[in-house]
């Protein structure tokens, strides 16, 4: 059981529990603000006052990041004898048409996330742009999946609902309109 | 002691995100294709439990573990920043198949190309910070 995919009705409540634990520790569940903290540590305060913050007050969240790296290591190396993600057969077919032959056989598509894939400069550009959009978008929106979709909606915040609607507008445009242009072989 | 607690909470979060496959690019694609209930189940059940827990924390006026009163501030009211920022984030989330939590989880799992995504995300956050007072919010 532990070694299989954890079902949604176990994982979802556990994520809510993590959020509640952080609130009870006097903090908030939000992963994307760490991106700014890293910028501040890297000296971004020289370029904009936006990054002039008290780094010490953000340290707790960096420890959560450190933990999640450890958790990823444990999840991948100790708890997952079979890393293949059992996605819907319909999804597998759609992905094969886009040239993703690893669909249904791996945790991440080897076409994007293997060392071999990095021999193609196009993949570097795709990953960089994807990351840029995530980092820029999440700070513009003031939160990501954890800060808005989980924390904000749990607190019945209308701004978070608007942000989550935005997440879906963007995601649907990317997958349905842009994927065929980006990945068509 | 508190530091250890944060690391342990993060570790637990990392394991949950990895084992629920919320950190898998394939699950994100499948979600945006509406081909499976899995991701909607994770977010939906997290919300169902989350709403109750937040309501309880607010109503019971429970103190934090260190004895301080808990305040959960409301999000600043606006439309533009949430819809524009949210849409840009969504475009990136679907392409990278990872949001800011799972990125670190995947780095720990040993998927090295995710580091390029993280570099991109740091650069994106940096550019936002530089432009923030010129952008419409």
From TrEMBL, chain A:
Domain of life: Bacteria
Entry's localization field: Cell inner membrane
Organism in which the protein naturally occurs: Flagellimonas olearia
Family that this chain belongs to: Belongs to the TsuA/YedE (TC 9.B.102) family.
Alphabetical list of Pfam families matching this protein: Sulf_transp
Name of protein: YeeE/YedE family protein
InterPro entries: Sulf_transp_TsuA/YedE
Residue ranges of the TM segments: 6-25, 60-79, 123-141, 161-183
UniProtKB/TrEMBL annotation, chain B:
InterPro entries, per the entry: Sulf_transp_TsuA/YedE
Pfam families (alphabetical): Sulf_transp
Transmembrane segments: 38-58, 79-98, 110-131
Keywords: Membrane, Transmembrane, Transmembrane helix
Protein name: Transporter
């Amino acid at each position: 059981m532990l070694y299989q995919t954890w079902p949604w009705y176990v994982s979802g409540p556990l994520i809510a529990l993590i959020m509640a634990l952080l609130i009870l520790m006097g903090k908030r569940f939000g992963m994307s603000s760490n991106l700014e903290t890293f910028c501040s540590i890297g000296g971004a305060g020289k370029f904009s006052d936006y990054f002039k913050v008290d780094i010490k007050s953000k340290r707790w969240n960096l420890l959560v990041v450190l933990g999640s790296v450890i958790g990823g290591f444990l999840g991948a190396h100790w708890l997952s004898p079979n890393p293949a993600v059992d996605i819907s057969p319909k999804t597998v077919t759609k992905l094969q048409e886009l040239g993703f032959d690893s669909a249904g056989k791996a945790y991440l598509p080897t076409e994007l996330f293997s060392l071999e894939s990095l021999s193609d400069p196009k993949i570097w550009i795709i990953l960089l742009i994807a990351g840029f959009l995530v980092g820029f978008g999440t700070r513009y929106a003031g939160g990501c999946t954890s800060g808005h979709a989980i924390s904000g909606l749990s607190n019945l915040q209308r701004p978070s609902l608007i942000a989550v609607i935005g997440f879906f507008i963007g995601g649907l445009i990317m997958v349905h309109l842009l994927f065929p242009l980006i990945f068509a072989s | 002691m508190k530091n250890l607690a944060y690391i342990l909470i993060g570790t637990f979060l990392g394991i949950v995100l990895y084992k629920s496959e919320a950190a898998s690019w394939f699950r994100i694609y499948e979600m945006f294709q509406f081909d499976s209930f899995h991701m909607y189940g994770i977010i939906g059940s997290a919300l169902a439990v989350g709403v109750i827990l937040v309501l309880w924390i607010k109503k019971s006026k429970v103190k934090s573990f260190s004895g301080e009163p808990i305040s959960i501030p409301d999000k600043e009211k606006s439309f533009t920043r949430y819809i524009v920022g949210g849409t840009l984030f969504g475009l990136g989330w679907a392409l990278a198949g990872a949001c800011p939590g799972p990125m670190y989880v995947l780095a720990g799992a040993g998927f090295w190309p995710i580091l390029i995504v993280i570099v991109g995300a740091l650069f994106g956050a940096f550019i936002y910070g530089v432009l923030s007072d010129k952008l419409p919010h």
